[in-house]
Amino acid sequence: MSKNTKIIAALTLMFVAFGIITFASMPTAGSKEITITEIVENSQQYDGDYIMTEGLLNKESIQWNADDIELHFEIFDANETALPVFYKGVRPDNFTDDVIVIVEGFMNDGVFEAEKVLTKCPSKYEGEDMENYDSEMHKELFNDKQE
């Protein structure tokens, strides 16, 4: 093999290795998007898997511990199936009734341990002021998406 061929082969191999390492280091690259109903009904099946799901926030379930920076809450889907979530991190600002919450993390003994918690701000997606926010319309939009 000529010197140029060896250099090209080595550079190609390094580029492929770099791509694999970059892709493998992103947790969301290996996440599965699962519905809340599937997770609750088959929670043992998803133990240890990095998964993503979304649901409507149950505002009454929010338990915020500012000293330990821990957040416990529930999200539910169109079937009214609730999923308890634990998150160690800062509480999102717009944690309000019927906001859509996207969580990524792992199931552990029936509780979803979130590494990421994202919210979809209703005013941003509906083009409305929060004072004019219609939670029932937001629920309908979410339920239509789930079907």
What key phrases describe this protein's structure?
147 residues; 5-stranded mixed barrel; alpha/beta; 35% strand; OB fold (Dihydrolipoamide Acetyltransferase, E2P); 31% helix
Describe this protein's structure.
The chain has 147 residues and is an alpha/beta fold. The chain folds into 2 domains: 1-30; 31-146, OB fold (Dihydrolipoamide Acetyltransferase, E2P) (Beta Barrel), CATH 2.40.50. Helices cover 31% and strands 35% of the residues. It is built from 4 helices and 6 strands. It has helices at 3-25, 36-41, 122-126, 135-146; strands spanning 32-33, 50-65, 70-76, 82-88, 100-108, 111-120. It has a 5-stranded mixed beta barrel. Strand 5 and strand 6 (111-120) form a beta hairpin. The chain starts with a helix and ends with a helix. The model has no long low-confidence stretch (mean pLDDT 79).
